[in-house]
């Protein structure tokens, strides 16, 4: 080995030695948060808005010095809305990125797949705030920010009950993710004395769907409730509106409104209402709404939505739930205070024996401007 090469290697190794403590300190002074979510698949609009809200709050948090001086590093992976890709992305976040916390993605299929995956189970992590609506065991390693789909259904029924409506049509997409919701809906109708006008089953038989849709329209229900993903809801609405243009149809907060309008058409989405799990994101009537509006203007060049507000509020709640100081081995990620806590105008975490932090539900009408009127 010549003398010049030896000198170069000595300087190179000395530089590495000097950098190692800095790298170690950088890793120690960072809280790594990971998320696998749909950014380019069927629910990309929901995923992108949710991520924008979360990222905005983390930008705010880091600008204030982070968490006890530790900066939040937010790593997002696109799972394209596919369960197998979500499992792969989560495994990479856990084993390679070494995330300390894990936010969830969009939909029950993806959520269940992640919870059942080997790498997630080995990690000991809790999946935080997925955009999913089914009920999960209270001992499952998942903590929801939003209320369950059952709570949304109850609110929808309560809304129309106040209008004196006692007959309803049900549109049901038969799948593992919706089976429990449909069963609970039937129980709720029986308890409330609501008459079933008809049922439309959404599946692989378009002729059956059209026939059942015609029968439902002829029964003239007071309103129709959809338990379906956005694509199937769009297929139904497009057909139903040919026969019943002014019957109220209700959907859940996880309906992708942009996609729904594209599939069904502008006229078809009139007279549709949707449950919402956050207050109107476009006004500042509470401190969390105002903070979200101001910080989105400061950090993001895009409009606000219910999903940006949900992401912002979920991230703020996440910070409030963290134990003081650095987390030690075996320590639970989250500590929910007794009686919950105020998150800027309303209380979350106050529902005993529940893995849902928020029970807030509102109603909004899809308007001609392709937005929601609360």
What does this protein structure show overall?
InterPro entries: Leu-bd, Peripla_BP_I. Pfam families: Peripla_BP_6. Belongs to the leucine-binding protein family. Residues 30-329 form the Leucine-binding protein domain. Residues 1-26 form the signal peptide. The chain is α/β, with parallel strands linked by helices. The chain has two domains: 26-147 and 282-360, Rossmann fold (3-Layer(aba) Sandwich), CATH 3.40.50.2300; 149-276, Rossmann fold, CATH 3.40.50. The protein contains twelve helices and 14 strands. It has helices spanning 3-28, 44-63, 83-95, 108-116, 118-123, 149-161, 176-192, 206-219, 230-240, 257-264, 287-299, 306-321; strands spanning 30-37, 71-78, 101-103, 127-128, 142-143, 167-173, 195-202, 223-227, 248-251, 272-276, 341-342, 347-348, 362-366, 372-373. The strands form three sheets. A seven-stranded mixed sheet has the order 7-6-8-9-10-13-14, sandwiched between helices. A five-stranded parallel sheet has the order 2-1-3-4-5, with helices on both faces. Strands 11-12 form a two-stranded antiparallel sheet. The longest helix has 26 residues, at 3-28. The radius of gyration is 24 Å and the shape is globular. It starts with a helix and ends with a strand. 42% of the residues are buried.
